[in-house]
Specification:
CATH superfamily of one domain: 3'5'-cyclic nucleotide phosphodiesterase, catalytic domain
Order of helices and strands: EEEEHEHEEHHHHHHHHHHHHHHHHHH
Largest sheet: 7 strands, antiparallel
Number of helices: 20
Structural class: alpha+beta
CATH topology of one domain: Catalytic domain of cyclic nucleotide phosphodiesterase 4b2b
EC number: 3.1.4.-
Family: Belongs to the cyclic nucleotide phosphodiesterase family.
CATH class of one domain: Mainly Alpha
Number of strands: 7
InterPro entries: GAF, GAF-like_dom_sf, HD/PDEase_dom, PDEase, PDEase_catalytic_dom, PDEase_catalytic_dom_sf, PDEase_CS
Protein name: Phosphodiesterase
Pfam family, one: PDEase_I
Length: about 525
């Protein structure tokens, strides 16, 4: 039986990614098989674009015998050929092993493989182009929109709100129409526009296109992306990130925050795999299907005419920026965070060294996760509202999973989820350790950890309130707002419009007998 492997060329990482390996389709939950695009037989074909017919594999200098030695399989002959698009550019490689009806592959086999590669390349290119074209059609930004955004010039951040650069400010309070200017103002205040000579019209078009690149699920939408980006800005302004990272790394972090959830559908990686979605087929990886898609969408926007904010970069810096963005966006997968957490802790224990490339890479991942979860550092009312949005999105996915005949996890099941306890578990096992570690690395972040810890206490009180009232596990949290509004109307609470201090909001968690929930 002939063995067959198909690799697609990842232009960003310069690697060949297996889509079919030894005759079997690589499933999305398997460890992704990648090889450098310039190594081995497949790499040679990818680089030269020429077919390679090897009659005796063991005598060929590019053949690696390690797999045969470990499996007992014997490779006799190989026919490896490039897959090209309509522009004759290599987009992948196919490899056939051990011809069955002859001693080796002949000229007829080469002609057949060449013909097949043409049709294969066209099909792959059309599939990717169709997806990209449809997305770009819906995200088109007009010249009028760009001009309207820039008509009054850049707005100083202090004019957006006096507390805009403070951790106490709630970015979700900014009207949606004002958020693009908010992004531009942060670009200006962080010095990126001058440092990297970014054309304002290009930047405006990029920002508007990124905004349009978000769908409208309850939580993973543009409002979330803006909030995450704003928190990155706060870290820069208040914690002196310039002392810990290179400027290009901070720039990459901020742009990644903007783009990190592009085209999110309100469903997670597990759902993409279970539903055998197109995304799962395109971005098979170690569980990071959506994160790879978000990064691919960011690249598509940068490649759109008039949107490349890195167009003044040298080739070397441009490649580095894309590498940084890829690593930072992939770090938003919490599974990735949990894998590197021991390394982060060891780095904190040993002491952070800004000259150590590994330390900077780890810190960037931690900062991205901190930004992604930054709603947990705001006041109780914001945190509570965010939980409602998140579980609304979770429950919608759970409903879809049930319709597919699958059993959703507890947090996705509206009939089983006990929101207060799920939130307490999330705070204790994910959020608090993240901000505790951040405070160890960046001493100024201590107040962030303290706010997260205070919100965790509030969830304990909510859980107690559920018990006292005998509420079902899936009860709405709206009653908390009703009590909050009642106390506010009675003048029992301070102004929470922007200070968002948790201690001002504890009143809504009073027990029925007037005491505090425990």
């Amino acid at each position: 039986m002939i063995g067959c492997s198909v690799f697609l060329l990842d232009q960003v990482s310069h690697e060949l990614v297996a889509k079919v390996f030894d005759g079997g389709v690589v499933s999305d939950d398997e460890k992704e098989f990648r090889i450098p695009a310039d190594q081995g037989i497949a790499g040679h074909v990818a680089m030269t674009g020429q077919i390679l017919n090897i009659k005796d594999a063991y005598s060929h200098p590019l053949f690696y015998r390690g797999v045969d030695d470990s499996t007992g399989f014997r490779t006799r002959n190989i026919l490896c050929f490039p897959i090209k698009d309509e522009n004759n550019e290599v987009i992948g490689v196919a490899e056939l092993v051990n011809k069955t009806n002859g001693p080796w592959f002949n000229r007829f086999d080469e002609d057949l493989a060449t013909a097949f590669s043409i049709y294969c390349g066209i099909s792959i290119a059309h599939s990717l182009l169709s997806h990209l074209t449809m997305m770009m059609y819906h995200m088109k930004v007009s010249a009028e929109e760009v001009a309207q955004l820039l008509v009054t010039g850049l707005e100083p951040v202090e004019e957006i709100h006096p507390l805009f650069a403070e951790f106490t400010y709630t970015p979700r309070s900014l009207p949606d129409d004002n958020t693009p200017m908010g992004i531009l103002s942060m670009f200006e205040d962080m010095g990126f526009i001058n440092t990297y000579k970014i054309d304002l019209h290009t930047l405006a078009r990029f920002c508007l296109m990124v905004k349009k690149g978000y769908r409208d699920p309850p939580y993973h939408n543009w409002t979330h992306a803006f909030s995450v980006s704003h928190f990155c800005y706060l870290l820069y302004k208040n914690l002196g990130l310039a002392n810990y990272l290179e400027n290009i790394e901070i720039f990459a972090l901020f742009v990644s925050c903007m783009c990190h959830d592009l085209d999110h559908r309100g469903t997670n990686n597990s759902f993409q795999v279970a539903s055998q979605s197109v995304l799962a087929a395109l971005y098979s990886s170690e569980g990071s299907v959506m994160e790879r898609h978000h990064f691919a969408q960011a690249i598509a926007i940068l490649n759109t005419h008039g949107c490349n904010i890195f167009d003044k970069f040298s080739r070397k810096d441009y490649q580095r920026m894309l590498d940084l963005m890829r690593d930072i966006i992939l770090a938003t997968d919490l599974a990735h965070h949990l894998r590197i957490f021991p390394d982060l802790q060891r780095m904190a224990d040993a002491g952070y060294n800004p000259k150590n490339q590994t330390h900077r890479s780890l810190l960037l991942c931690l900062l991205m996760t901190s930004c992604d979860l930054s709603d947990q550092t705001k006041g109780w009312k914001t945190t509570r509202k965010i939980a409602e949005l998140i579980y609304k999105e979770f429950f919608s996915q759970g409903d879809l999973e049930k319709a597919m005949g699958n059993r959703p996890s507890e947090m996705m099941d509206r009939e089983k989820a006990y929101i207060p306890e799920l939130q307490i578990s999330f705070m204790e096992h994910i959020a608090m350790p993240i901000y505790k570690l951040l405070s160890e690395l960046l001493p100024g972040a201590t107040e962030l950890y303290e706010r997260v810890a205070t919100n965790r206490v509030q969830w304990t009180k909510v859980s107690h309130k559920f018990s006292v009232r005998g509420l079902p596990s899936n009860n709405s949290l709206d009653f908390l707002d009703e009590e909050y509004e009642l106390l506010q109307s009675q003048g029992a609470l301070g102004d929470d419009s922007h200070c968002d201090d948790t201690h001002c909001l504890n009143g809504c968690l009073d027990d029925g007998d007037g005491g505090r929930g425990q």
